[in-house]
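User: I've been going back and forth on whether these two constructs are worth ordering. Before I decide, could you fold them both?

Assistant: Sure. I'll take them in the order you sent them. The first construct and its structure tokens:
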Amino acid sequence: MNFHDTNIAIVGFAREGQSTLRFLLSHHVDPTKITILDKNTAAVIPDGFTSVLWENYLENLSPYDMLIVTPGISPYTRELQDYNGIITSQTDIFFRQYTGKIIGVTATKGKSTTVTLIHEMLRQAGKNVQLVGNIGTPVLDTVDLNNPLDWIVYELSSHMLEYSDLCLDIAVLWNIYPDHLIYHNGFENYKNAKLHILGNTKHAVVGKQVFDDGYLKMETDSITTEHGVRIQANIVQIPDTTGYHLNGDDLYNWTERIMSGAEIHLLGAHNKRNILSVFAVGKIAGIPEPVIRKVCSDFRWLPHRLEFVGAFDGINFYDDAISTTPESTIEGILALDGRVDTIFLGGQDRGYDFSHLAQVLKEQKIRNVVLFPDSWDRILPLLDQSSHRILSTISMKEAVQFAYTHTENGKTCLLSTASPSYNLWRNYEAKWDEFQKFVNENTY
């Protein structure tokens, strides 16, 4: 990519936009050729740079030859629609410039656990490896493009995939459920962004759900998308009874047991399927199975993913604050296998379908349900109110008090809201902070 003699606009000047500026300057791009665009009028712009800081910061894009857009800005923003041909991103720049081997991972849920395990597997196998992307610091701050490592492990959000021309050695596409529908202007665009990870990959590890829901089709001699686009990669489907699959709690490859479920600390079948994908990636990358097994048996959990908070007054509290879709909340409920007596649900309304979740609540005999706005309007009509005691509230303190009052001794209270947090909390970590605070106060 030619950054010189090019009028460049950095669109969005938070953490990644600032990283992009550092990258351009390290490549000796003339500062007079760089303009910074951001709707935050209080953004701190370094001396010597032109900036446009106001609500209508995208009003005039015609002076620019290249728009380097941060992932938080939707490509479906009206002002960007006529400029798709000159839009790029930090992720796209990296893939166009970097010549080393890359493993890319995306999924609606489960990608952070998967990339962490893959990174640790490669590290313990003695590889020079770096974990980048959605889970860490901006990639152009992390990786020297002129000195390729043995492997890069890249967690790719749908936002990153929208703008990027990928070329992967191994792609992992674990699941696709409706999410970020406003950002992507609907599920079709979100789904296609996720499928984009398969476009130029050599090997792919793909969750069975992607096939079961028709987003990919297995044919006699190829794989195609539902729209007939052929995928050239060598694809491993997981689980698959002729390959990597679960048999009870244990992990198998064909007829060989590769790991006992008793060795795994992560809760739930969904996490065991994540581990199957790690085994598949390890085999493609040439990593010995004993190394993979040790990494997966040593791993506990990432924060806010079915994390045990503690037992207070005979109640077990679990933090699954990262579960912001109905599908991931269902997985958490099933992982706890009949132990949940109280659950906290609701938050920002993204138009999700909660009907299956409501059915699972009834089947699992979850007696107590806390509902937060705004998605409580979608959830409440689906609940069998004769089967549940329901509290609708905007107060985490009131919700925790409800849990202490009504949760059966020895049972579990689960924070797993099946909705994002942004209407009540800054993010899911802030939601967790309030949950932990009031659980620990235990003054009810």
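The second construct, handled the same way:
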Amino acid sequence: MNVILASASPRRKELLTNIFPDFQCIPSDIDEIIPKETPLFEVPCILATQKAEFVEKSHPDSLVIGSDTVVIAGNELLGKPCGDDDARRMLTALSGKVHYVVTGCALFYNGNSRIFRDETKVEFYPLSDEEIENYIASREPFDKAGAYGIQGLGSLFVKGIDGDFFNVVGLPVSRLNREIKAFLAEMP
């Protein structure tokens, strides 16, 4: 079976090798559209579905995996920062507080689909202005939801997590593996 990851994320690609040693990466070229009034915790499932559907149209006989990760702090969805000021705003909002990292996953194969999400609760230590500025200067925050990478220098901010560490990195590998097995077992 041909497996396609509908993503260009190097972190997702690395994590998926734990399940499939051989697969293709075909990023979806979509405008991410989130319907108004969508509950924040549903947003990553909608985006993961859009990504997987786009790639599946060209590869209907492949197992296509779409994924999207967001950070939710209070009532705000934090995506990837669009500059220093945005990263500073996000890191300040996360400082000393609990937030949620939610990854939506969409599986498409032979006209069938399965969508699920995984949530991890993360607590940050209070961050000083100097810590925030040094982290921004490292440039690490700029391709990561919530402006931090738990697998890099951002790990220095994390007081604790409740849930899957790899979900925070960008792909809930263990759950994804189980969902794929169950999904494929249901195929006629």
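Notes on the second construct follow. The chain has a mean pLDDT of 96. The CA atoms of residues 113 and 138 lie 39 Å apart.
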